Amino acid sequence: MTQPTFRVDVCKEQFVFSAAHFITFAGDICERIHGHNYGVRVSVEGPLDENRYVVDFIALRDAVLVQTQALDHHVILPRDHREILVSQDDKETTVRFRERRWVFPNEDAIIMPVVNTTAEEIARVIAERVREQTMEQFGHALSFIEVAVDENCGQWGVCRLPWKLSE
Ligand SMILES: Nc1nc2c(c(=O)[nH]1)N=C([C@H](O)[C@H](O)COP(=O)(O)OP(=O)(O)OP(=O)(O)O)CN2
């Protein structure tokens, strides 16, 4: 007989973060900098605990909020892009793509460990960070964490990670 599976989803109005970014696509087309009011949904799957919870909604909600608030009102830049080159001195973050150049105060910039700041990649980073942040609290019995990032009212990039870190 197939066993039931359980999941908790949190998708709150407070999870919206407003951030600027630009990506490259189709090889070498580099977007102009623009912003989105990103939305986030997070799901975790696993067995029920003694409360008959997968995890406490409130604990998961609060962990996601830490991540979305950290991104709010920043420009998100890729650390690992081959041609979008990001450098920092003690005051400013400078970004170059071929002949184009952008300069931001350091406190406005977030350099994310991604190749391109797509919704999928941002979802992966949030998933890794929420997993790391809650691992001790939620324990090791969960199976998956999934994070979905909405760039524009229904355009979602989704990343699903195993709960357990690979050996
Ligand atoms: N799978 C993905 N596709 C696209 C992504 C992405 O992250 N994952 N990102 C983009 C661009 O960032 C693009 O800027 C998306 O923004 P959007 O505002 O939706 O683009 P539009 O110009 O069509 O929006 P308007 O509503 O006209 O402002 C593209 N694809």
Short précis:
The protein contains two helices and twelve strands, in the order βββββαβββββαββ. It has about 170 residues and is of the alpha+beta class.
Describe this entry's structure for a reader.
It is a single chain. The chain is α+β, with helices and mostly antiparallel strands and 167 residues long. The protein has one domain: 6-pyruvoyl tetrahydropterin synthase/QueD (Tetrahydropterin Synthase, Chain A), CATH 3.30.479. It has helices at 57-71, 119-138, and strands spanning 7-10, 17-21, 24-25, 29-30, 34-45, 74-78, 85-88, 92-97, 100-105, 109-112, 144-150, 156-162. The strands form three sheets. Strands 1, 2, 5, 6, 10, 11 and 12 form a seven-stranded mixed sheet that branches. Strands 7-8-9 form a three-stranded antiparallel sheet, with no helix packed on it. A two-stranded antiparallel ribbon has the order 3-4. A hairpin with a 3-residue loop joins strand 7 (85-88) and strand 8. It is elongated, with a radius of gyration of 18 Å. The structure holds ligand LPXRUNBV. Ligand LPXRUNBV binds at residues 23, 31, 118-120, 151-152, 155, 157.
